């Protein structure tokens, strides 16, 4: 299922992102997620642009839908999108909006933008795969540190931890944008998750964390990047 | 409101729904019951949970998560049946209905209890006469308002067998007999210029009301999509159409008006008034 391909050149991702202009307000969100997305699609996820609906694919859910330029760039590099389409970004009628839409873009698992929905959807997806007896696929959801303030996420973290959803991974991209923030890893640990805090710009460290054993628990990877400022 | 005074059956709508869902879980691999504690201990749920491990998902008292989980389950090809009191099922997690189901282009069967003022002593926190109006803001939903446990049984089974978003509004108030069939059904023929549409458990009271003695009485247990063609086929050239709904008055004014847009008409909308209730006790429909 995995296509053997050379590692993605980071400069190529930056070039593709430069094709998408008009949402400078969320450019920090786009760059904060770039390295995590790069590592996930290059080294971790089992997805195939030729079979985007394969039942045994890994599911990646971008909950933090703001600033999805990095997401679209990675999807283009991996064959889910044509590079030429990136220039239509945020244009009327384009499939590539300021927040991604799963109905429009192959490989996009959820439509997102309103914060606090991806993690509950990921929990349901992980439960659903377990019910269907699909033990191989992983469910990986990316949230922002500020997004964790949403109450729906606390509902999801508590339930997932107490249910032993070992096929679920939450990646928290931490650019220090949360108000009244606490210890992010502790939030997950307290509910029975495994939690690891890593440098969100170090690809090897990210890969190690994202492929770590879950020990029959869901896994949270807090990927720390430079503060939003 | 008078509660459970006319039922000839010992089965409640809630019991009919839970047993229909259990049957579906026993006989197909798609159905999953999603709860937020409500009804987790009601027969046959505990036995079902033991018999079909994993097919009853009780997320605890976390109603936003309940809908998000339903959306995720549906994304994996399963058919979630989601249940709670109406305010906790469709009001508290309203944005989750919009985004975790509708925007993801997946369906679920939502089944509520507590319809409007079913429990007179419970107070405003558990009352949601606004529920159908709330769901009606969302595109593509089917809304069933059964008037009898047998109708609830049938409508739940049909809803589970489908794929789209469905809201089934159960009530402890019931009619004496079920009325099966789809769309508007003529229960009593009268004047084509004086037509009453009775929804779900309001039917027996409509039939007994002196003010509707000469009217044609139609019945429906499905309010969305509304059977506009069925209404047009029955009414006269300049009709007065009265709709009696066991929830917020005026909820269906829009669809009635659209159905009769080709002729002069007068609408009378009967339902519960728009009020911030601080009153315990019966709430009577103003028939």
Question: Which labels suit this protein?
Answer:
heterodimer, A: 229 residues, alpha/beta, Rossmann fold, five-stranded parallel sheet, 8 helices, 5 strands, globular, B: alpha/beta, disordered N terminus
Short description:
By secondary structure, chain A is of the alpha/beta class. Chain A is built from eight helices and five strands, in the order H-H-E-H-H-H-E-H-E-H-E-H-E. Chain A is globular, with a radius of gyration of 16 Å.
Could you describe the 3D structure shown?
The complex is a heterodimer of chains A (229) and B (287). In chain A, helix 1 (10-18) packs across helix 3 (69-77), helix 2 packs across helix 8 and helix 5 (118-131) packs parallel to helix 6. Chain A is an alpha/beta fold and 229 residues long. The longest helix of chain A is centred in the N-terminal third of the chain and has 18 residues, at 27-44. The N and C termini of chain A lie far apart (41 Å). Chain A has one domain: Rossmann fold. The model of chain A has no long low-confidence stretch (mean pLDDT 94). In chain A, strands 1-2-3-5-4 form a five-stranded parallel β-sheet, with helices on both faces. Helices cover 35% and strands 13% of the residues of chain A. Chain B is of the alpha/beta class and 287 residues long. Chain B is 31% helix and 23% strand. Chain B has helices at 13-27, 45-51, 63-75, 86-91, 94-102, 131-136, 149-161, 203-208, 228-234, 253-259, and strands at residues 31-35, 56-58, 79-85, 109-113, 142-144, 166-169, 185-188, 191-199, 215-220, 222-224, 240-248, 266-272. In chain B, the strands form two sheets. Chain B has a seven-stranded mixed β-sheet, with helices on both faces. A five-stranded mixed β-sheet of chain B has the order 7-9-8-11-12. In chain B, strand 11 (240-248), helix 10 and strand 12 (266-272) form a beta-alpha-beta unit. Chain B is globular, with a radius of gyration of 19 Å. The termini of chain B are close together. In chain B, 52% of the residues are buried. Chain A binds chain B through residues 55, 59, 101-103, 109-111, 114, 116-117, 119-132, 134, 151-152, 155-156, 158-159, and chain B through 29, 32, 54-55, 57, 59-60, 62, 64-65, 67-78, 80, 95-96, 99-100, 103-105.
């Amino acid at each position: 299922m995995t296509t053997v391909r050379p590692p993605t050149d980071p400069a190529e991702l930056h070039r593709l992102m430069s094709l998408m202009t008009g949402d400078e307000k969320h450019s920090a969100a786009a760059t904060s997620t770039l390295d995590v997305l790069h590592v996930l699609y290059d080294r971790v996820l089992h997805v195939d642009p030729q079979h985007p609906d394969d039942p045994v694919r890994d599911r990646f859910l971008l909950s933090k839908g703001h600033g999805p330029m990095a997401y679209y760039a990675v999807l283009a590099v991996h064959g889910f999108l044509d590079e030429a389409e990136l220039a239509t970004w945020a244009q009327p009628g384009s499939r590539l909006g300021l927040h991604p839409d799963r109905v429009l873009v192959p490989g996009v698992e959820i439509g997102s933008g309103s914060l606090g929905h991806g993690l509950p959807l990921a929990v349901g997806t992980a439960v659903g795969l377990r019910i269907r007896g699909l033990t191989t696929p992983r469910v990986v959801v990316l949230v922002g540190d500020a997004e964790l303030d949403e109450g729906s996420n606390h509902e999801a973290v508590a339930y997932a931890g107490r249910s032993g959803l070992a096929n679920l991974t939450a990646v928290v991209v931490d650019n220090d944008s949360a108000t009244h923030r606490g210890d992010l890893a502790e939030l997950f640990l307290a509910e029975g998750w495994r939690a690891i805090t890593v440098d969100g710009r170090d690809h090897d460290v990210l890969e190690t964390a994202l492929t770590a054993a879950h020990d029959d628990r869901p896994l949270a990877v807090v990927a720390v990047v430079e503060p939003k400022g | 409101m008078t509660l459970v005074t006319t039922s000839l059956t010992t089965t409640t709508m809630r019991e009919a729904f839970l047993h229909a869902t259990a049957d579906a879980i026993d006989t197909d691999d798609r159905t999953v019951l999603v709860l937020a504690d409500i009804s987790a201990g009601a027969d046959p749920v505990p036995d079902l949970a033991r018999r079909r491990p994993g097919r009853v998902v009780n997320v605890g008292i976390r109603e936003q998560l309940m809908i998000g989980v339903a959306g995720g389950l549906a994304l994996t090809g399963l058919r979630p049946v989601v249940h709670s009191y109406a305010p906790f099922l469709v009001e508290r997690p309203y944005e989750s209905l919009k985004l975790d189901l509708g925007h993801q282009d997946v369906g679920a069967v939502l089944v509520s209890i507590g319809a409007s003022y079913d429990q007179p002593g419970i107070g405003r926190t558990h009352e949601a006469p606004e529920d159908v109006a709330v769901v009606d803001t969302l595109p593509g939903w089917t809304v069933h308002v059964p008037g009898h446990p047998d109708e609830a049984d049938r409508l739940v089974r049909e809803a589970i067998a489908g794929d789209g978003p469905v809201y089934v509004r159960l009530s402890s108030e019931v009619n004496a007999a079920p009325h099966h069939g789809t769309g508007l059904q003529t229960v009593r023929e009268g004047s084509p210029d004086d037509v009453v549409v009775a929804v779900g458990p309001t039917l027996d009271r409509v039939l007994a009301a002196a003010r509707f003695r000469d009217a044609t009485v139609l019945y429906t247990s499905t309010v969305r999509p509304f059977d506009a063609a069925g209404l047009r086929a029955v009414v006269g050239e300049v009709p007065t159409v009265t709709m009696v709904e066991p929830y917020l008055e005026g909820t269906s004014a829009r669809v009635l008006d659209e159905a009769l847009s080709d002729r002069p008409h007068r609408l009378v909308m009967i339902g519960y008034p728009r009020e911030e209730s601080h009153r315990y006790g019966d709430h009577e429909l103003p028939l």
